[in-house]
Amino acid sequence: MRIVSLLALILVVAGSAAAELIPKEYVVSKYVAPPDAPSSIVVAGPGEPGERFVVTGRVLDGNKPLAGISIYVFHTDTNGLYARNGVNNDENARLHGVMRSDKDGAYRFETIRPKGYDGEPAHVHYVVIAPGYKPRMFDLWLADDPILEKRRKDGLPELWFESAPGRIMVRPVTRDAAGIWHATRDLQMLPE
């Protein structure tokens, strides 16, 4: 009987964690773009060390583009650090920016390719908040990341965890003639 109760408790806790679309500490004004925020921004300028990287995408409800949606992005630098001084966590990210999707649901940002840390592949975090929709946290992982390539070679799945449907997406990257990397990450919203 105790084993059955313990198993039921584990399933409830695991189910609630899987259903979490965003940790509550990210649903605060710090992560919301002002109403007049542009749809295209520069997160890391040309003076930031690293390979140039452009990310584009759209915010969607099914196939319907959503305009004016708040998008906050943040990531590590080329050393896998969020901050140069002080506490190195994602709530203290030095490389970050806010924007709002345009009339076609599109967004774009220029930055540098981040580096992974603690055995995790390189990634970009998104906090996406919109009236009438559930707040979401998304991650963009880069398909050519050496950690993911090693996992594939070893016969392991790319995603060994996922806390919410569609949160993590591994996307291909391409390099243009100027040496700039590109990736696309669409963001699927869920009505409240």
SSE topology:
Elements: H1 2-19, E1 40-42, E2 52-61, E3 64-65, E4 70-75, E5 95-100, E6 106-112, E7 123-129, E8 136-142, H2 146-153, E9 168-171, E10 174-175, E11 181-184, E12 187-188
Parallel strand pairs: 1-6, 2-11, 2-12, 8-9
Antiparallel strand pairs: 2-3, 2-6, 4-5, 4-7, 7-8, 10-11
Structure description:
The protein is an alpha/beta fold and 192 residues long. 14% of the residues lie in helices and 31% in strands. The longest helix has 18 residues. The chain is globular, with a radius of gyration of 18 Å. The protein starts with a helix and ends with a strand. The N terminus is likely disordered.
Order of helices and strands: HEEEEEEEEHEEEE
The second-level CATH architecture is Sandwich
The average pLDDT value, as a whole number, equals 86
Number of strands: 12
Query: What does the oligomeric state look like here?
Result: single chain
CATH superfamily membership, which one? Aromatic compound dioxygenase
Considering DSSP H and I runs of 4 or more, what fraction of the residues is helical? 10-25%
Strand proportion? 25-35%
